[in-house]
Amino acid sequence: xxxxxxxxxxxxxxxxxxxxxxxxxxxxxxxxxxxxxxxxxxxxxxxxxxxxxxxxxxxxxxxxxxxxxxxxxxxxxxxxxxxxxxxxxxxxxxxxxxxxxxxxxxxxxxxxxxxxxxxxxxxxxxxxxxxxxxxxxxxxxxxxxxxxxxxxxxxxxxxxxxxxxxxxxxxxxxxxxxxxxxxxxxxxxxxxxxxxxxxxxxxxxxxxxxxxxxxx
Length: 216
Known about the structure:
Layout: E1 9-14, H1 20-31, E2 34-36, H2 46-51, H3 53-78, E3 86-88, H4 94-102, H5 105-119, E4 127-132, H6 135-145, H7 155-170, E5 177-181, H8 191-202, E6 209-211
Parallel strand pairs: 1-3, 1-4, 2-3, 4-5, 5-6
């Protein structure tokens, strides 16, 4: 598998449970790329957020914002690894999607001030793969992996989050986006399903493209 030489930073995106990290790991292995994985387990506020969102939303979001900024700086700035292909299982823009979902107006205003300063010098992806799935599929996958902190996630929360993600990537203009519907496939356990996605990524479409892989 090869990518266009102009792609030096590829990001995988999608709602909780859609399979971002699984696909990012496969791609990083096949392309011998530097992998950036979101460090959600290091956020001490996340379990508390799932128990009491209103009380811990701002702390959770601010920790993620600073953590993601540090990861990007470590990779792209301090270590100068941008000479090699970098694959991330999130975009920096993801943080704002969750902030809009979880913060009050006053919290959001403070968040925007910090985020604007932090994000101005960070690189943008050259290509984004947005993995999409229905709320029913996401709930099934989240329940299947059975992470204790995610057991309280409700369908309504995912539905609102999915709408925000869809709106963001349907209007995304920083680079081409490959939108992949994953409702009827299992690219983790089915090589045929995975190959369809990898072939679509390798084709490097120059504009936003929608892919519905064949199941079976």
